[in-house]
Amino acid sequence: xxxxxxxxxxxxxxxxxxxxxxxxxxxxxxxxxxxxxxxxxxxxxxxxxxxxxxxxxxxxxxxxxxxxxxxxxxxxxxxxxxxxxxxxxxxxxxxxxxxxxxxxxxxxxxxxxxxxxxxxxxxxxxxxxxxxxxxxxxxxxxxxxxxxxxxxxxxxxxxxxxxxxxxxxxxxxxxxxxxxxxxxxxxxxxxxxxxxxxxxxxxxxxxxxxxxxxxxxxxxxxxxxxxxxxxxxxxxxxxxxxxxxxxxxxxxxxxxxxxxxxxxxxxxxxxxxxxxxxxxxxxxxxxxxxxxxxxxxxxxxxxxxxxxxxxxxxxxxxxxxxxxxxxxxxxxxxx
Length: 335
Hints:
Elements: E1 5-7, E2 10-13, E3 18-20, E4 28-30, E5 45-49, H1 50-60, E6 66-69, E7 75-77, E8 80-86, E9 94-100, E10 103-107, E11 129-134, H2 146-162, E12 166-170, H3 176-181, E13 191-193, H4 195-207, E14 230-233, E15 249-254, H5 263-266, E16 271-273, H6 281-291, E17 295-301, H7 303-312, E18 317-320
Helix pairs in contact: 1-4
């Protein structure tokens, strides 16, 4: 890599003397987004998009040193021109563009190419080297338009409500939960949030994101208030005593992994909705080709299969990098 090197602490740009999404404490870290595998505790100074600021403070501590920058605004570090560009992954997610003496590298973090009407839509950035995830880098992964997914989810909720079941939907606290909130049919019933999701919502609202400000599930709310309601909870709440207050209920999991036959059954959920904040197979190919990169570095996911496709079919040089990024966790651990 001409502008980057992989070090024990993470991806490092020596010319600018900064790291992108490092996994060990460093002096200067540019953060692509606030998910835990990309935004970690212990950095002396953070830089991120402004929509990531309050969530990072919630997760990493109010006293972190953090500077924010808007999409497309350039700044210089030791002669390296740096800017953030929309990744479309979750609110505040960004690709990091580095330019030095005509050489351009882009680190994508995580991304999706479908406009979810919540996150700033993905914008391809032309470069010589592109660092890409490939969480769902297999041809079996092909997402349906989110309108169809939410039509099915709202119908599932309405049927449950008619049968006097409460509906509990499991989704990541940051990104996916807010995407669901933005697409629910609120005429069906009340909507509540687990505390972890409510706290994330408050941080995003404080940052200026426009999302429904739904109530938090508390002990003071009578059980009768949940009748016919939809409750959004992180995957970590699955099967815990916290769920008892919603009985009788039906459960659903929202994940790209629900695309795989049998995944829902293994998780003992009543329904599974194929909803991912990562690009599918076609989305990955589209994004990489749009970058016009001569060389692509694959950081996490199906690196072997996807890299072989890029080289043999698209004639793009691909190199797999061993990183600590996780993408969409197949064990459904919240990030």
